[in-house]
Design a protein that fits this description.
By secondary structure, this protein is of the alpha/beta class. The chain contains 14 helices and 25 strands.
Length: about 550
């Protein structure tokens, strides 16, 4: 369900992982009006996990499938969802004002469920080889190390689980643990201990990674004996290093607003209340001894219960009522018992949820667009054609033209006057790039997503022609923010053009530039690659540097 602007909510939930989705379910089921704002992909960090086996009452499943069910369940009770970045929070009187990249929203309560991002260690070479051998996401980058030696740094839950996942690709995996043993539960670590493709060294610290364009040498030290070990692959080959050293909480939104501990985690009481009235927190942003899906959902349920009470109290105090969705007990009972209408079968490339998203976008499109689809002998051509044809069949605002092409099929977006809108995708925009592609259509055909006034002024000042080339993986949750930011700039200034490549389909690019991590990109013909997600402001910094050197 799409969010409506300029109306009062009982609660705004920032973050669409298990904690945020659970809170949305509980709030919506209590007949509260709740909006979930997520800047990347609903599901959170667990969506990257290939197999979840310890969630109570659930058969082994993927993290993506588990959180997709949570999303549908919350939406079924009336929760609203918005893909946008929250820029700031402010308390005005009795309500919170949530300023996002797609507009401002007012609510009695706010839940911070923004999770955490990977923490860097700081060994020599970590920064230099990031994206060229040093990585932080096995799901995003594991396949780039097929047939190579891989090192995993860390001894916690993520290190133990992801090391097993990496054996799908790696020749051999070596885990380097600083402590005397794994710090996660023994049952979690046991599959790594039992795997014949995994070696484990405890009381070990990485000192350096060295090489040329790729890592060629790794040195580690035994902390008990002081002995140093130097690893160099056979035949001068490269290798991979995956860092799983914990996470940094994503609490920038509330720095200086709510109390944080010395590590940056938000301080809450037993009811998930922060030190600021009406502001709650749940999940990995909080101080807690165990960071698991089950504890995140528990946080979300507890926070939601308290937020519902507080919102009702604020309604009585202010005399302001939110626009409640009709609370129909019979429907709720049907959902609780599993009775009711069966879900409609999914046909074609789009699920029912995807079609809902698309129809919302199509309704907001103000100008028609033309999709030029270049096909080739590649077997994915038929998939891309089916994708774009069915997309255009849903609305009269899109048309499709088929052209001949070479290599991997691609789609380019054109304005009604025949000019290129500056957006192109090489491959099939599925996985996590589905949302970024749809947002590209929306931004190219309308006023689009809101951009901060300061950034808008900077975009308008771009006078030179620039081309942003972006490499992504469809499984990467960090890629969409970069893609959406680059494409938003392109839709606002015709001097900027973007080409997005599904790197798995372009091994020649990977080999030519030694790309071992996504997202990565370069601007114009500059061979200097940049890695990691970037927002609009960060991209503008780089474009302005290019302008200064022109």
């Amino acid at each position: 369900m799409a969010a409506e602007k300029n109306e009062l909510y009982d609660a705004v939930v920032i973050g669409g992982g298990p904690a945020g989705l659970t809170a949305a379910l509980y709030l919506a089921r209590a007949c509260c009006r709740v909006l979930v704002v997520e800047k990347e992909t609903f599901g959170g960090q667990i969506a990257l996990t290939a197999e979840v086996v310890n969630y109570p009452g659930s058969d082994p499943t993927s993290g993506a499938d588990l959180t997709a069910k949570m999303h549908r369940q919350a939406e079924g009770f009336g929760a609203e969802f918005l893909l946008a970045e929250v820029n700031s929070l402010e308390k005005k009187g009795d309500t919170w004002h949530v300023h996002t990249s797609r507009g401002d929203y007012e609510a009695f309560t706010v839940l911070l469920a923004t999770g955490a991002h990977p923490r860097q260690i700081g060994f020599a070479g970590e920064k230099e080889f990031r994206g060229h051998g040093v990585a932080y996401c096995a799901t995003c980058d594991g396949e780039f190390f097929t047939g190579k030696d891989v090192f995993v740094i860390g001894g916690g839950f993520a290190a133990a689980e992801e090391s097993v996942f990496l054996t799908k690709y790696a020749k051999h995996v070596t885990i380097l643990v600083r402590e005397e043993d794994f710090t996660c539960a023994p049952a979690t670590a046991q599959p790594a201990r039992d795997n014949e493709k995994i070696s484990i060294h405890f009381q070990t610290e990485v000192e350096s990674v060295e090489g040329d364009t790729l890592p060629r040498k790794l040195t580690w030290k035994n902390l008990a004996t002081g002995e140093r070990t130097v690893f160099t692959p056979e035949g001068g080959d490269s290798f991979g290093v995956f860092v799983f050293a914990g996470y940094q909480p994503s609490t920038d939104l509330v720095k200086g607003l709510a109390e944080l501990d010395e590590h940056g985690y938000i301080v809450t009481d037993r009811q998930q209340r922060t030190t600021v009235e009406g502001l709650y927190a749940a999940g990995d942003v909080c101080i807690k001894p165990l960071r698991q899906v089950v504890t995140a959902t528990g946080d979300g349920a507890l926070a939601a219960t308290e937020m519902e009470k507080y919102a009702m109290k604020m309604e009585e105090k202010t005399g302001r009522k939110t626009k409640h969705k009709e609370c129909r007990a019979a429907q709720h009972t049907a959902k609780d018992t599993g009775k009711g209408e069966a879900a409609a079968p999914t046909t074609g490339p789009f699920t029912a949820d995807m079609k809902k998203q698309l129809m919302t976008v199509f309704d907001r499109m103000e100008r028609p667009l033309h999709l030029e689809v270049a096909l080739s002998d590649d077997p994915r051509s038929s998939e891309l054609l089916d994708f774009m044809t069915q997309l255009a069949e849903m609305t009269d605002k899109l048309s499709v033209e088929i052209t001949g092409g070479m290599g991997v099929p691609n789609v380019r977006i054109y304005n009604a006057d025949g000019s290129w809108a500056g957006l192109a995708f090489h491959g099939v925009p599925g996985g996590h790039e589905f949302t970024s592609f749809v947002l590209g259509l929306y931004n190219a055909s309308s006023a689009g997503q809101k951009v901060a006034d300061e950034d808008l002024a900077r975009i308008e000042k771009i006078k030179e022609d620039h081309h942003i080339t972006i490499m992504v993986s469809l499984s990467c949750t960090m890629c969409p923010e970069l893609v959406t930011s680059a494409q938003r700039i392109a839709t606002l200034n015709p001097h900027v053009k973007t080409d997005v490549y599904d790197l798995s389909l372009f091994p020649e690019i990977k080999e030519q530039y030694n790309i071992m991590s996504v997202p990565c990109f370069f601007i114009d013909d500059d061979a200097k690659f940049h890695f990691g997600k970037k927002n609009i402001s960060q991209l503008l910094d780089l474009l302005e540097q290019e302008e200064a050197h022109a």
